[in-house]
Automatic annotation (TrEMBL):
Residues that, per the record, bind substrate: 155
Originating organism: Roseibium aquae
Protein name from the UniProt record: Alpha-glucosidase/alpha-galactosidase
Annotated family: Belongs to the glycosyl hydrolase 4 family.
Family annotation (Pfam families): Glyco_hydro_4 (PF02056), Glyco_hydro_4C (PF11975)
Record-listed Mn(2+) binding positions: 177, 214
Length: 465
């Protein structure tokens, strides 16, 4: 029997199984896959959404390339976890309406955010809402699926992956993010410039990743054994002032206007620090003071993604999902850019697979605290998550990223220990608040806590005041 004919059985528990985004992406990828024979349990606090996705999953199974995956909505977390090989977590902490407050309130104090889900005041408040839930999920995994491999897809990635390890130190968990794909696509374009047949895709690009989630850099780029760093450096310098994207979106393409960029921040960071930045500009910009990129985002040619657009887009996706579930629309099998299916197959005995992932630092990234959640390459192989030795960042860049990393670690610790009085200092220390007067920073903090008080841990508002 050849490898391509072999099917790896896997039981997947999907927490957030009513998702309109990542859950359906996984369904499409499983339908396009020829490696796995999957049983997927869908758990969601909204059981009706999980049942809808169960119906959608059965539609994808009908048109699968390989062994059809089986989907089942499950009403309680212990049952969903029992016997799981893989646990996937993708949940929205609160609602988009709550996220809107995370953006609107800081903007009143002169702090714009392009995403607001990782760092800055928005990322901080999102973490406050999500960490308690992730601590409970971690404890449930310890009780019901301690041997499972756990993939966290939820932002803020570093903080929430850290919360899972805080709840269950023995957990076998990684944080999965596709942002590094963006530099790999640029590298593939460079490698293909003189090849009309477009020989290489981003999957052919090898990079060495260093940093923390959404603030990642690479110090090696290669394609088919060719060192692309000199060509990339020349390309970035050439396009630094004008920006570049492979295909200019249509002016009416609202999604592209709010989610895409022309890589000017990425290219400028290479000028400043000598290494290519890997993530998209919308994320990279949020790690630096407002006056560096966010304050002139139009000049830097990236958008601020408004929550009202996210709400409209979610409604559109819901319409599509309902149509697929009811049989009024055919499911489309499109292999996404995500690496999750390949990672699962490798962990369960398939072909080893290397990809960027977020893990506690065990020495793979020099200069960072032991146990801090860092993003480097990781080797996925039978029963193992092995971080790849990444090396060390340049000193000036390391100082910036370590500072962010220590705030993330401190935030998890404060919430685990319920040390709510120390939270404001962590909030205040973010570079996006550097130019905000102390009185305004304190007022912003109080306003943001009050805006979603019903979603925060009991006692936080009183002790944090």
């Amino acid at each position: 029997m050849t490898y391509s004919e072999y099917r790896i059985p896997v039981k997947i528990t999907y927490i957030g199984g009513g998702s309109l985004n990542w859950a359906l992406t996984l369904m499409s990828d499983l339908a396009a896959d020829s490696q796995l024979a999957a049983e997927v349990r869908l758990y969601d606090c909204d059981m009706s959404a999980a049942l809808r996705n169960e119906r959608i999953g059965s539609r994808f199974a009908e048109v699968s390339v390989g062994t059809p995956a089986r989907y089942r909505a499950v009403s309680n977390l212990p049952e969903a976890l029992e016997g799981a090989d893989i646990v996937v977590i993708s949940i929205l902490p609160g609602r988009f309406e709550d996220m809107a407050k995370d953006l609107d309130i800081p903007l009143r104090y002169g702090v714009p955010q392009s995403v607001g889900d990782t760092v800055g005041p928005g990322g901080f408040m999102r973490a406050l809402r999500a960490v308690p839930t992730f601590l409970e999920i971690g404890k449930a995994i310890k009780a019901h699926a301690p041997e499972a491999f756990v993939c966290n897809l939820t932002n803020p990635m570093s903080v929430l992956t850290g919360a899972l390890y805080a709840a269950f130190p023995g957990i076998r968990c990684w944080g999965e993010c596709h942002e590094v794909t963006k530099i790999r696509k640029i590298a593939a374009f460079i490698a293909n410039r003189d090849r009309p047949e477009r020989l290489f895709s981003f999957r052919d690009v090898d990079v060495n990743v260093l940093g923390i989630n959404h603030l990642t850099f690479v110090d090696r780029i290669s394609v088919a054994g060719r060192d692309l760093m000199p060509a990339y450096a020349q390309f970035a310098a050439h396009h630094r002032d004008t920006g570049w994207c492979e295909v200019d979106p249509a002016p009416e393409d609202e999604h592209a206007r709010y989610f895409e960029d022309r890589n000017r921040v990425k290219f400028d960071l290479m000028r400043r620090f000598g290494l290519p930045a890997a993530a998209g500009d919308r994320h990279l910009a949020e790690f630096f003071p407002v006056n560096e990129y966010l304050g002139a985002h139009a000049v830097w040619q990236f958008g601020l993604t408004p929550v009202d657009y996210r709400i409209r887009h979610q409604a559109h996706r819901r319409e599509i999902a309902e149509a697929i579930a009811s049989g009024d629309r055919e499911p489309e099998i499109i292999r996404s850019d995500e690496a999750l299916v390949d990672q699962i197959a490798a962990l369960l005995g398939g072909k080893p697979f290397t990809a960027n992932a977020n893990l506690p630092n065990a020495g793979q990234l020099s200069g960072f605290d032991h146990g801090a959640i860092v993003e480097t390459n990781v080797l996925f192989s039978a029963g193992k998550l092995t971080p790849v030795k990444a090396g060390r960042l340049p000193t000036d860049l390391e100082e910036i990223i370590v500072e962010h990393s220590r705030r993330q670690t401190a935030l998890v610790r404060a919430l685990v220990e319920e040390d709510y009085r120390g939270l404001f200092a962590i909030f205040r220390g973010d570079p996006l608040l550097r130019q905000v007067p102390d009185r305004d920073a304190a007022a912003m903090y109080r306003d943001m806590l009050a805006s979603t008080a019903h979603l925060l841990p009991a006692g936080l508002l009183q002790e944090a005041a």
